[in-house]
Amino acid sequence: GFFLPQVLNEKKLQEVDSLWKEFETPEKANKIVKLKHFEKFQDTTEALAASTALVEGKLSKNLKKILKKIVAKDAHEQLAVADAKLGGVIKDKLNLSCIHSPMVTELMRGIRSQIEGLITGLPSREMAAMCLGLAHSLSRYKLKFSPDKVDTMIIQAISLLDDLDKELNNYIMRCREWYGWHFPELGKIITDNLTYCKCVRKVGDRTNFASSDVSDILPEEIEEDVKAAAEISMGTEVSEEDINNIIHLCDQVIEISEYRTQLYDYLKNRMMAIAPNLTIMVGELVGARLIAHAGSLLNLAKHPASTVQLLGAEKALFRALKTKRDTPKFGLIYHASLVGQTNTKNKGKISRMLAAKTALTIRYDALGEDTNAEMGAENRLKVETRLRHLEERGLRRISGTGRALARTDKYQNKSEVKIFDPSGDSTLPAVSKKRKIQEVEEQDAEVAVKAKKFKAEMKEETTVEDAEPVKKKKKKKDKEKQAEEEETSPTVELLGCFECELGCLATCVALLLHYGLFTATFVCLQNAEKKKKKKKKMKDEDED
Length: 544
What we know:
It comes from Alca torda. This is Nucleolar protein 58. About 60% of the residues lie in helices and about 5% in strands. It is mainly α. Among the domains are: about 1-145, 2-Layer Sandwich (Nucleotidyltransferase, domain 5); about 150-265, Orthogonal Bundle (Helix Hairpins), CATH 1.10.287; about 275-390, Serum Albumin, Chain A, Domain 1.
């Protein structure tokens, strides 16, 4: 009920920090505060109405009557109020002076702790039961608990819808395979599963297609194709009992398909009633799966946007964290239409933004008082605008202001015939530059000068050898002389006299190769001339 106490000693209330000591025992509390009036509630409904009015800062009818009767008599006294909003309402309607301060808060706390000692005639058990019942009623009111907000039906409906889809796929696959032994061409002509089952149920044996009318199920063109294929079918013959069982299976498929359509309409209506903003954002199927995955709409409202984004991809997330790889970017929210119409590059960004807006709409649906879908439509428009901006960003110019769209030129197919270049297969070093004609002439002149000098030196050597007495020697000594002459031959002096034929003096390898080959051939020519001279000497000696 309504409990109205009166303060006896106002001086002790000035000491706010030590006020709690005055309420340690019921005896001390009775010295500070005494009961002035108490009016009991008739039932729990009245208690709930009074409590909700106080929570919302409103003045109920019963409280207004009590304040007029009792407090109005002592108009000169102040009324201590714990809620400043409620105090303003009382002051406006009843013209009573109200006070709200930290001292009042401490006083209210002390009165609550010793409420059983201040109110006489109420046993503690009855007080506890009333408090518990009022707490439950107030919690239901705060959460707006009503049959229209039951999300258990959505969880059961979406689970049943998934099960029906699996069973339908199994039944249709079995029906196509079973009847395919009798009429295999029909499966290729009719692609729709429900139309296939209706056609098989109406006709039965393939021989009946020629005389039966299937215009209410199939278009004229497809009907003609089916009748033509039935006449030349390669299928096996089946008995009447087999056809009856196949027809019974087709009946089951058609009934389940009709029930699934009805269940989908029911789920759509329930989602629009319970979570309209969530339905507009991600669709009824994705929204129902999110609610079923979280357990309830209230549990889903407690999840942050990052969790909403990854709901349904928990295994991939923990596997990525364990193997230190990239974490997934989306879970069940991937099947939303906004994410599906995005290109692969921007799917992560759009799913993150969609999850953030979806989390807001879920909380609005679960805890909000209004049941309109304006918030969901506004957030969806923002996400679509962001999506359009991301798609247009790729078409902007990279240079310049970046505001103008890039101009795409008309595509023209240019066919070019490429010829294989065999020069790339050569392992020889490529010529860095071509030698000029003057360089080649200069080199030839230098070579001619060197050759003349060499001939003059050779003539001098031959004259010296003719003057000395010639004696016969053995082959070993001739070989030793040849080796000594090779060592003393002017090959080292000639190394610096020739340029590389490739025209590249900076390449050491080419120089060494060139000079090495040249000196070797030069030594061979010198030895050959010496051998000729020796042969002539031997002939001259024999003649003498």
